[in-house]
């Protein structure tokens, strides 16, 4: 992302805008922008999106164009949300950030962590704030844990880690952290509960004795985040990226196959379910393959895609051995 105070509007590259879930509104090609090099580029569309900076999200109107950078954060965004551009520290920050000061002189031992008392310098109109460390402190080997704090208290807890090989001294009144006001706090249900029981199929292990069952239960509870909690919790592997090499073959665009009205509604529900669960996302491109709905033995439907045409032109990475 490029921060450009010379850009009047915030821009997003066209190919990235098409991948977003936000509603992209296409515009007639009658509005153009003048770039820093003097060239003209057309505005392809616009969308309302959330831009995340630090611990806060900002909703803003973004214009879509064929630009080189992935995103250009323009002057309209900086002025609207009162951002401060600090060229000396090479950072931008919101004008609503405040400092937290050390209540008393504290010595932090080398390579150790401690909890000290801080005094917030935050106006009284805010009840909660997210506390983080300022860059000038972190560069000296001091890290402060990001914490949600209650500003109605006289002092707030500040967890500090000294990464240096020598003790660090924090004088009384020294700036130890920055605070950003919290506007909304959204309560989210915990993924796991301390009283959650294992499924009966894992509880009734008849081939094991009681001691072995206790050890298995302990092991499964320790690694319970590896198990699915519901049908929608399928997980996602982000350790690798799959690439389909089609070479210089032209794109294959197959038209959708006709479905009965009842099956069409079922297909729409399955697509919506996969979108809501983050399995698939909306996109537009020259490659399309038809869907196939297959009935399973239990009567439910398996959503499939007929990729046979694509598989025929895909360049194989390895040669499959032939056995007679």
UniProtKB/TrEMBL annotation:
A molecular function (GO) term: endonuclease activity
Superkingdom in the source lineage: Eukaryota
GO BP terms: DNA biosynthetic process; proteolysis
Name of the featured protein: Retrovirus-related Pol polyprotein from transposon 412
Pfam families: gag-asp_proteas
Annotated InterPro entries: Aspartic_peptidase_AS, DNA/RNA_pol_sf, Peptidase_aspartic_dom_sf, Retrovirus_Pol_polyprotein
Residue ranges of coiled coil: 202-229
Keyword line: Coiled coil, Endonuclease, Hydrolase, Nuclease, Nucleotidyltransferase, Transferase
PROSITE patterns: ASP_PROTEASE (PS00141)
Organism from which the protein derives: Araneus ventricosus
Gene3D superfamilies according to UniProt: Acid Proteases (2.40.70.10), HIV Type 1 Reverse Transcriptase, subunit A, domain 1 (3.10.10.10)
